[in-house]
Amino acid sequence: MSGTPSASADLAVAARWEMDESVGAAVMADAGPNGLDGAVGDEIDVGGGSFRWSTINWFTHPATVERIVVVDDHPALDPGLGSFEIELRYRSDGNYGNIVQKGQNGNPTGAWKFEQPWGFPGCAFKDADGVLKGVTGRTQTWDGEWHVIRCELDRDFGEFGRLRVFVDGEVDQVNVLNEPLGPIANDVPMVIGGKINCDQIVITCDYFWGEIDYIEVRSESSIATTLTSTTTTTTTTVASEPPSVVSGIDDTATPGSAATRGDRTVLD
Ligand SMILES: [Ca+2]
Ligand SMILES: [Ca+2]
Predict the structure, then answer these.
(1) What is the whole-number distance in angstroms between the Cα of residue 21 and the centre of ligand 2?
(2) Any idea which architecture 12-260 has in CATH?
């Protein structure tokens, strides 16, 4: 069961990971219609109905790919021009970290992420033209208690759509878009727990710590994934990201600032 109902009837479950695997499991099973199982890194503590990540400093070197779960690219996980939602139940005493994302700043055809800078949950979407829109909650949720968080890209609202973040079933923050947000699709994996393309030197990995009970992604693109096959170019690879040049606001390095409440200039 989802914590909160979808705003749009146009959405279908793209994937749902219950994260109920047994101790030591290497595969995160998808209960959704597309069979999007993930590969679980060895440093993730699995069992008892959740996945757990140990505390880590944001600057800890080297990058630790064993801290992430990797789900292969699938069109249902790319918003395209449709609406999109990510919902998860989690608890954390960390005021930092990327929780789940598909793509990074250097992915030229778009990216999305769900994060908790300074413990404010939120998400950001970047389109193929580089337009970046985000919404960050007003409620800090790094209190170690369980919370259901949902981020929503609603393409059908108003002229250009809106982003909303829900905390425990209540709307926590809204960003009504003031310009169009174009197509968002890439050919890189979806990652849970931090970035996949990072080195902790030039590109921070933004590792999450805490515990996740489940994650569900709902998308319009999942309604007809066979019709929504990747139409973007295949020139993007995981290794192609240039250095994460901060052109204005680094939303993870300046968490909690006023700028992180609205749109950002970098999605990393
Ligand atoms: Ca794709
Ligand atoms: Ca679970």
Answers:
(1) 8
(2) Sandwich (2.60)
Q: Which of 31-40, 58-67, 233-242, 247-256 has the highest mean pLDDT?
A: 31-40
Angstrom CA distances, 251 to 35, 55, 136, 246, 247, stand at 32, 20, 10, 10, 11
pTM of the model: 0.84
In the reported structure, the alpha carbon of residue 3 is separated from the centroid of ligand 2 by a whole-number distance in angstroms of 13
Tens of pLDDT, residue by residue over 185-196, are 999 999 999 999
Beta bridge partners of 84: 153, 219
What is the whole-number distance in angstroms between the Cα of residue 65 and the centre of ligand 2? 22
Tell me how far apart the alpha carbons of residues 37 and 28 are, in angstroms, rounded to a whole number. 5
For the stretch 105-133, pLDDT in tens is: 989 999 999 999 999 999 999 999 999 99
| Gap from CA of 20 to ligand 2 centroid (Å) | 5
Domain boundaries, the chain: 12-260
Closest ligand (CA of 183): 1
The answer to whether 252 and 209 have CB atoms below 8 angstroms apart is no
Point out the ligand nearest to the CA of residue 18: 2
- CA gap 69, 184 in Å, rounded: 21
Sort 234 into a burial class: Cβ within 10 Å, 0-12 / 13-18 / 19+: exposed
* CA 75 to ligand 1 center in whole angstroms: 5
Q: How far is the CA of 203 from the centre of ligand 1 (A)?
A: 23
